[in-house]
Write a structure and sequence with these properties.
Distance between the termini: 15 Å
Order of helices and strands: HEHEHEHHEEHEHEHEHEEHHEH
Oligomer: single chain
CATH class of the largest domain: Alpha Beta
Largest sheet: 6 strands, mixed
CATH superfamily of the largest domain: Bordetella uptake gene, domain 1
């Protein structure tokens, strides 16, 4: 599959920003969304960060566009069940998708047939936020440098956890090991919680995790943060350096989320959704609620999202090839 995306004309029209006129108002047609409910498909199980975003999205769009927006959880098949549903839906604006960069830029490479092509099957509406990734370790590791130095002295003995082969945690740590020139042992888990528990107990050495599940362990002293995988330090963890600061210039593990619709959304509908979405995630009160979870709202439009998908498809294709991961 090609990693190249082209920005369709509808996205350029949508990029005009806030839709102060609902589609239909100027033509006498029924304004979107009218009385028909809009389904926001969430390809994850109920609960956790996806629902935090989902609630913010349906409330924000409902307040700004009117009508009824509802969350529709469709987990399964590594998020492809719900994603395929949206890719194949009628492009009328009544079926939308909330998903993360893994769904759009990793899953199509690790599954033999994901059932959708991110380069062709979606109308991009905008990012909603970026969740912090950071490396955490059993407290006996005083720093990232100490851990990597041990890995250099004892190849194949230092271990890291992830929530699955081909996950962001796997690829992000593989990239660090490649840059550092070390041989690490990958221990995949079915989820983050069990992995963090085993790291705290010393069964595994470290992992790349989001902040929300790791923070209780950090506050209790069971885990030590070694470095954040973002371009700048996180405001609520000012003492934790970035990985880039520690000798790995340019190191970053993206963790953005976004909203998309099926390919072919009418330009006026796409523009209305894009404008309302950007306004929702520019709200300072929402920022205050999301920041303790390690989330930074990202009110960007369709062109920036297309750029992110294009970039990450290329990066992840290369990492997956280097890691020797074959599609299942």
């Amino acid at each position: 599959m090609s990693a190249r995306l082209t920005l369709p004309r509808r996205a350029l029209l949508a990029a005009g920003g806030a839709a102060c006129l609902r589609p239909g108002d100027a033509t006498g047609q029924v304004p979107y969304p009218g009385q028909r409910p809009v389904s926001l498909v969430i390809p994850y199980a109920p609960g956790g960060i996806p629902d935090v975003f989902g609630n913010a999205i349906i409330r924000g769009l409902g307040q700004r566009l009117g009508g009824t927006f509802v969350m529709d959880h469709k987990p399964g098949a590594s998020t492809t069940l719900g994603t395929r549903q949206v890719a194949r839906a009628r492009p009328d604006g009544y079926t939308l998708l909330f998903a993360g960069n893994g769904t759009f830029s990793i899953t199509p490479f690790v599954l033999r047939d994901a059932g959708y092509d991110p380069a062709k099957d979606f109308t991009w509406l905008g990012m909603t936020g970026s969740a912090l990734y950071l490396f955490v370790a059993q407290p006996r590791w005083e720093s990232l440098d100490a851990l990597l130095d041990a890995a250099r002295r004892r190849p194949g003995e230092v271990s890291y956890a992830s929530w699955g082969v081909g996950s962001s945690a796997h690829l992000g740590t593989f990239d660090l090991a490649r840059r550092a020139g070390v041989d690490l042992v990958h221990v995949p888990y079915n989820g983050t919680a069990a992995a963090l528990t085993d790291i705290a107990s010393g069964r595994v050495d470290f992992m790349l995790s989001t902040l929300a599940p790791a923070r209780p362990h950090m506050e209790a002293g069971r885990l030590r943060p070694l470095g954040v995988a973002s371009p700048a330090r996180y405001r609520l963890l000012p003492e934790v350096p970035t990985v880039a600061e520690q000798g790995f210039s340019g190191y970053e593990v993206p963790n953005w989320t976004a909203v998309a619709g099926p390919a072919g959304l009418p330009p006026a509908v796409a523009a209305a959704l894009e404008g309302a979405l950007a306004a929702t995630f520019a709200d300072e009160q929402l920022l205050a609620r999301l920041e303790p979870l390690g989330i930074t709202p990202t009110p960007t439009g369709a062109p920036a999202l297309v750029e992110a998908v294009t970039r990450d498809l290329g990066i992840n294709a290369d990492l997956i090839r280097r890691a020797g991961i074959r599609p299942e």
